[in-house]
Design a protein that fits this description.
The protein is an alpha+beta fold. It is built from eight helices and 18 strands.
């Protein structure tokens, strides 16, 4: 499918690095494509950055028919840009689309549109250490109707934004608050979809956790309020003396790309890894007994970050200050992304 290109005539001033926050600056162009039930995906194009016009009755505005992705690009030693695992993000977008009754997006349209946009705005890639160019693909149901139904009209777009590191190696570990009131999703939910509503409802619990002096929430399952799921918007790993455990892809957590990459790296090291349910009570007891060596978080923004404590039912459970496994996985992942370690897995897609 041919992508039409319209260049912006007035370019934005690029930030110098000191004023870059997450999403505070967007690049000069967008990639867009339209969907109609009778035609499929049509009109792929790169256009100057602009607002998106929606009818006031658009389905996305009333019923949450909205999904998104997030992925990063990294400058390589030879000067080229490389995108980290874009095909995995394309697959996850379609996984979310199926859960939200939105149409599949062809993988080649996702990748070709992303490449066309990145080539146009590559100069926006920050040069500061740890900074990256971040892509946010979005799909919206835009059909103008107040009926609750599968959208027959959709818009897909990708924007780019220069992004600072969310976590730097050596920073203090995250302090988590687990509370039986806080769950990401219940039975038969769409918690495994990267959909807008899953994030909007996180704001109040995370605000409360921060008001109490914690960094974010350690979510518990919505049925029994017993099993740990995610921490904020990241996946979680627990390193016991004899194994490493992360919650399973049970429909209640997001299938994180960094989570999957971390599992690959752990298994390559020959470490015993389990994807299994972890009761919060058992985890706290294991920390108290000294049977937990470290806990760490994984995510696109976070990469890999240690946890320093978990608070539950009024008691702080402090974790070891040394987190060698988290540091090693962080070094390996960031080394592959930056092109200074070999990419044995084919994770990098060069622009």
């Amino acid at each position: 499918m041919t992508i039409s290109v319209t260049r912006a005539t007035a370019l934005k001033a690029k930030p110098d690095g000191s004023d870059i926050g997450f999403g505070t600056h967007t690049t000069d162009h967008l990639f867009l494509a339209d969907y109609r039930a009778d035609t499929g995906w049509i009109n792929p194009r790169v256009e100057p950055y602009q607002g998106v016009r929606l009818d006031p009755t658009a389905l996305a505005l009333h019923y949450g028919c909205s999904i998104f992705e997030g992925l990063k690009m990294f400058r390589q030693p030879d000067g080229r840009l490389a995108i980290f695992r874009p095909l995995t993000n394309a697959e996850r977008l379609n996984h979310s689309a199926r859960l939200m009754a939105l149409p599949d997006l062809p993988t080649d349209l996702f990748l070709d549109g992303l490449l066309a946009l990145v080539r146009m705005d590559e100069a926006w890639t920050p040069t500061h250490a740890g900074y990256t160019l971040y892509a946010r693909p979005v799909m919206l149901g835009i059909e103008p109707t107040l009926g609750v139904q599968r959208p027959k009209q959709c818009l897909f777009y990708i924007l780019l934004t220069p992004t600072p590191p969310y976590y730097r190696k050596g920073q203090r570990g995250f302090r988590l608050l687990a509370d039986r009131r806080f769950a990401r999703g219940g039975p038969y939910s769409v918690a495994a979809a990267k959909t807008a509503g899953n994030y909007g409802k996180m704001v109040l619990p995370i605000e409360e956790a921060r008001r109490l002096g914690f960094d974010t929430v350690l979510w518990l399952d919505g049925r029994q309020q017993r099993f740990i799921e995610e921490a904020g918007i990241t996946n979680i790993f627990v390193v016991y003396r004899d194994c490493i455990v992360t919650p399973p892809l049970n429909g209640r957590i997001l299938p994180g790309v960094t989570r999957d990459s971390t599992l690959t790296l752990l298994r390559e090291r020959g470490l015993p890894v389990q994807e299994a349910e972890t009761p919060i009570d058992a985890l706290c007891a294991a920390i108290k007994a000294g049977d937990v060596r470290e806990v760490f978080l994984t995510g696109t923004a976070t990469v890999v970050a240690p946890v320093s404590s978990i608070s539950f039912e009024g008691r702080d459970h402090v974790l070891p200050s040394q987190t060698p496994l988290a540091a090693a996985i962080y070094d390996t992942l960031t080394g592959i992304q930056a092109g200074v370690l070999p990419d044995k897995y084919g994770w990098l897609h060069h622009v």
